[in-house]
# Entry
Amino acid sequence: LATGPRQNNGIFYEIRTYDIKPAKMKEFLELANKHFHLRTAHSELVGFWHTDLGALNKVLHIWKYDNFAHRTAVRHALANDKDWQGKFISVVLPMMEKQHNEVAYLVPWCQLGKPPKEGGVYEWVTFQMKPGGPALWGEAFQAAVNAHINTGYTRLIGVFHTEYGLLNTVHVLWWNESPDHRAAGRHGAHEDARVVAAVRNSVRFLESQQNVLLIPMQCSPLK
# Structure
């Protein structure tokens, strides 16, 4: 089934996740921080993180494109960029075990945000929803997200739903000052009747959920 309503423009986000060989993780991160400016010269990077809890030896980065023609032009330019191919791609490909990408749109009621300051941690929460997209579960999901925002312990960065990849997947990116600040806020939210009621309504459409704690890279615009 169609994913339902989205933003009223052609902008989309490509979410790329790489599994790195454990013995090569440190080297990969060093190379990315050193050479990723070669990649960001071609298109806008939203954020680049490595996992800390919930998954290990993974990196995740999000790219913003104006439309699919824009992405095609960027991919063509990258394939012909000798510095990018020689200094980074050819070196890190043997370090990778798996690559995965998705195309996602911001849900209609969300704008991409920024943290109030640098130095925090990010939480990447993936919800697998029942088929139908935001047209089916959007209002209930929005209410659950807003209930958590209203507790004041966390900052919403973005809510993305997939167009390519596993459909009816929603990724929510949160920012917190620290893992402990997040834990304390979650405990408080679980005792808030408004949050409990909103979540109970939303989980009617939920099939599975996964939470991952992300640490921003030095080269990430979102830090």
